[in-house]
Amino acid sequence: MAKGKKKVPALNASSMADISFLLLIFFLVTTSMDVNQGLARRLPALSDQQVEKPKDINKRNFFYVKINSANQLLVQGEEIDIKQLREKAKEFIENPNNASHLPVKTEEEIPGLGMVSYTKDHIISVQNDVDTQYQMYLNVQNELVAAYNELRDDFAKQRWGKVYNELDEDQQKLVQKVYPQRISEAEPKNYGGNK
Amino acid sequence: MAKIRRDEKKEMPALNTSSLPDIIFMLLFFFMTVTSMKEVTYKVRIQNPEATELTKLEKKSLVKYIYVGTPTDEFKKKYGSETRIQLDDQFADVSEVESYIINERSSMPESDQGFMTVSIKADKETRMGIITDIKQALRRASALKVSYSAVQRTSY
Questions:
Q1: E strand or H helix at A118, and its extent?
Q2: What residues does B45 pair with on adjacent strands?
Q3: What pLDDT does B3 receive?
Q4: Which residues of A125-150 are buried (b: 16+ CB within 10 A; e: fewer)?
Q5: N or C: which end of chain B has fewer CB within 10 A?
């Protein structure tokens, strides 16, 4: 009927801004710039510990890290700075020169890798005081995990020319076998009737 | 020459605001992607510790949180300034951690129960005594996968 194109009147979009503002404010209020990152660790199971305890391990296989209440570090009976810990731990885990005071290296045939010699039974033992600061405890854990990560990366690069994270799952498992993460945390001593 | 006409009122043209919604939407999307939903309102003050070897927590539904810190100002009067534990929306004692974790785990679908991760969000000034107690409680509840929440360190 109607001839000639009828123009559609422009949609009034002035309230659009208000709506989006409302949405924006809603999101600002309900969300937070939260970190979802963390240092992943695995706690030892309660029962396992008791089974493993009696096994006497050679003294040279132990790497003692102690943190006191003033956040000072004692590593293998020697007071050191946190920055040196990573290198020390790496040297301990790797034992590059087969030194007699560092952990025993065992040669083993691992399917998929061939003969490798690695420190199979080394244990890093972390002991902290009741009054140790959480940040310091995390620093120590962080450095130890970093030491493992660096060693694994080096190994992966040598073998496959890739860093550890880029390997596929089977390869990662092999690397984990050569550098098993063995960080033990000393059983907390009873420090008074706090139970 | 240029004439100045005083009598004729010049109307200011309306400001074109048609692109305003687009700008706001852009802001909105930015915030939606960068932030994440708050799990709870913090009743304890937490300053994140720093670390470098961080891994991201993958599945949100598999993560349970334990907050450790000193009560915020509004709760200081009631709960003092000692370090406290917060589970969900309320303060709790160390002895409650174990049952809380067991409860939370049993409410998860059975196929997921083995993958539960407990994220410990503690203030960096916290003393290790309370953390050790929590860790022991987690071991008793056999929740062995833990993640110490931290932010990326930029410098020493």
A1: strand A114-118
A2: B70
A3: 59
A4: ebbbbbebbbbbbbbbbbbbbbbbbb
A5: N
The verdict on A29 touching B (C-beta cutoff 8 Å) is: no
pLDDT along chain B (156 residues), means of 10: 62 81 87 77 87 84 89 87 88 90 89 88 89 89 89 77
Q: Model confidence over A13-22: pLDDT tens digits? A: 778 888 888 8
**By CA distance, what is A11's nearest residue in B?**
B18
Average pLDDT over residues A123-152: 89
Cβ atoms B83, B130 nearer than 8 A? yes
Domain B44-49+57-151 has CATH 3.30.420.270: yes
Q: Which site among B22, B31, B40 would you substitute to test the A interface, given the most A Cβ atoms closer than 10 Å to its Cβ?
A: B31
Distance from CA of A44 to the nearest CA of B (A): 7
In this structure, what token pair is assigned to residue A50? 């008791």
Where residue A22 falls (left for φ over 0; alpha for ψ -120 to 50; beta otherwise) is alpha
- Answer whether residue A126 shows pLDDT above 60: yes
Domain parsing of chain B, residue ranges: 44-49+57-151
CA angle A47, B61, B44 (to 5 degrees): 80
Q: Which residues of B touch A133 (CB under 8 A)?
A: 124-128
* Contact at CB, B55 and A137, closer than 8 angstroms: no
24-83 in chain B: CB under 8 A from chain A? 24-25, 27-28, 31-32, 34-38, 48-57, 60
The one-letter code for the residue type at A2 is A
Domain ranges within chain A, ordered by starting residue = 61-185
| pLDDT for res A195 | 39
Minimum-distance CB partner of B54 among A17, A37, A46 = A37
- Residue A57 has a pLDDT of 63
Query: Is there a contact between A139 and B35 if contact means CB atoms under 8 Å apart?
Result: no
